[in-house]
């Protein structure tokens, strides 16, 4: 799973010269932005949520394990994650089993939240490098992804990083035209499913700082035919900072709506830690719980897209990107209840 907060421009240039890829900026919160409301107390009941909660998630299995080991207090705290809906990131080789399991679990009563993350040349060769081997393989994957959703209610976050890496120059010029075409075709294919909403990822306000720089690339990638764009995926920017950025960007995109990843932004971003402040930063906490009741006409949902407790990569003692890290998860949950 990709980490969406990224290096400074200077670091990007250095990496580019070394042909080692590049990434978006993590940045520090500007001024005295209001901190996103954190989760307090026990996990909220799931009955009022429109989104599916996976009873077999890593967090849920960890709760069971700790309960069996007598770590009852830690298990209770971790329920702040396990009892809330988080996104599913279907496998890059075959997305069908993951999606079908989620759709079956939702049983037509909940919306499954999915992340399509398999674009060729993904993450510019960094911690979450990979993706489909070529354009046709990607289109085949997207077709299987969409077929597996069927008529179910689904919300799809389409290709975190992909457009932002076009804007920051990370994606080499020879791949840019293909990427735009693939994203556009992916939007159209997913929107053929009657119950599917699609949000094309647009990075975060500490990465692409000026909304005007990403508006036209989003248009080229097909955002007008999607349901909107997504912000803050796997990042830590506050709700207020993200909503302000999203509102400006929406104004450049004919009033497009957007979603916000609030999975780990309860304390905002880590400042003063250089280029990898985005990678497994200490002292963070869960943010606003997933909901479609956002209180903002432009914000369709607050979502936990980055699965709280999954590592950003092998930094600060973490495992590889996307790997469950129970100690980090426990810290996020515990600080949310402080």
Order of helices and strands: HHHHEHEHHEHEHEEH
The shape is globular
Give the end-to-end Cα distance, rounded to a whole number of Å: 28 Å
Q: What low-confidence regions span 5 or more consecutive residues with pLDDT below 50?
A: 1-47
State the helix count.
10
Helix and strand composition category: alpha/beta
Evaluate the radius of gyration.
Answer: 18 Å
- The average pLDDT is 87
Sheet of most strands = 6 strands, parallel
Q: State the helical fraction.
A: 25-40%
The portion of residues forming beta strands comes to 5-15%
Strand order of the largest sheet: 1-2-3-4-5-6
For the secondary structure, the number of strands is 6
Structural notes for this entry:
The chain is an alpha/beta fold and 338 residues long. It is 34% helix and 9% strand. Helix 2 runs antiparallel to helix 3 and helix 5 runs parallel beside helix 7. The protein is globular and about 55 Å long. The two termini are 28 Å apart. The N terminus is likely disordered.
What is the gist of this entry?
This protein has ten helices and six strands, in the order H-H-H-H-E-H-E-H-H-E-H-E-H-E-E-H.
């Amino acid at each position: 799973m990709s980490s969406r907060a990224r290096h400074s421009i200077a670091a990007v240039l250095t990496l580019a010269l070394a042909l080692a890829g590049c990434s978006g900026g993590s940045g520090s919160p500007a001024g005295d932005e209001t901190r996103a409301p954190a989760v307090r107390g026990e996990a909220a009941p799931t009955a009022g949520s429109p989104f599916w909660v996976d009873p077999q998630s890593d967090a849920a299995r960890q709760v069971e394990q700790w309960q069996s080991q007598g770590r009852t207090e830690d298990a209770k705290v971790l329920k702040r994650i396990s009892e809330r809906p988080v996104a599913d990131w279907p496998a890059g080789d075959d997305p069908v089993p993951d999606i079908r399991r989620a759709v079956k679990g939702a049983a037509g009563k909940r919306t499954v939240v999915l992340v399509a993350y398999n674009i060729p040349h993904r993450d510019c060769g960094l911690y979450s490098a990979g993706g489909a081997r070529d354009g046709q393989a990607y289109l085949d994957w997207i077709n299987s992804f969409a077929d597996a959703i069927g008529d179910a209610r689904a919300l799809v976050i389409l290709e975190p990083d992909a457009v932002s890496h076009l804007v920051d120059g990370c994606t080499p010029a020879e791949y840019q035209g293909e990427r735009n075409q693939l994203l556009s075709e992916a939007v159209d294919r997913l929107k053929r499913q009657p119950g599917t909403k699609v949000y094309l990822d647009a990075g975060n306000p500490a990465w692409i700082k000026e909304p005007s720089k990403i508006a036209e690339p989003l248009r080229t990638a097909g955002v007008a035919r999607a349901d909107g764009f997504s912000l803050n995926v796997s990042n830590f920017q506050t709700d207020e900072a993200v909503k302000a950025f999203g509102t400006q960007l929406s104004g450049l995109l004919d009033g497009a709506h957007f979603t916000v990843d609030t999975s780990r932004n309860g304390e905002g971003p880590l400042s003063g830690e250089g280029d990898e402040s985005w990678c497994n930063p200490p002292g963070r906490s869960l943010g606003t719980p997933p909901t479609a009741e956002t209180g903002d006409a432009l914000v369709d949902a607050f979502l936990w897209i980055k699965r709280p407790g999954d590592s950003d990569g092998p930094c600060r003692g973490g495992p590889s990107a996307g790997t469950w890290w129970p100690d980090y998860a426990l810290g996020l949950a515990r600080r949310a209840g402080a």
